[in-house]
Amino acid sequence: MNSSLHPTSQVLARHQDLFVQQHLVVAGQLYDNYPKELLEQVASLQLCCSHYGQFSYFQSIADPKINSQFSATPKLATHSDALLFYMPKSKQEAAYLFACLLPQLKVGADIFVIGENRTGVKSCEKMLAEFGVRLNKIDSARRCGLYYGQLQQVALVFCPSIGIAHLKFN
What we know:
By secondary structure, this protein is of the alpha/beta class. Helices cover 19% and strands 25% of the residues.
């Protein structure tokens, strides 16, 4: 295992086979460039970056499978069938990103959430339950948790100007 990777990425490296031939969206609090390692497994990789440096790095990769965007309101490719979400410490940021991303995924899409225990990764279970996603912890190592679930219903469309009335940020 590559010890230069962030602990979240070290946990993900144990499960690369989960992403084989997925049209994978990666979003949230990236700590390193691990998503680049997934290019051999995935059918396509779309990164929704909130940090300009990460966006620039992934934009510079000359691979037709990768697409990165730097936006407060990311737009997903219509064929996206899986989300790998790096849980940020801010629950409000996580709730906002879930509200932006989940309505763009098809019912049945795979949802993976990775995060350090100190970021409150366990709260993803309650947050995603509001979107009809029941998560199960599939790995716990390096003080991190990896969760998996599937989008079971069409998620309500999020409008940044009015939000979604039922979203809870606590």
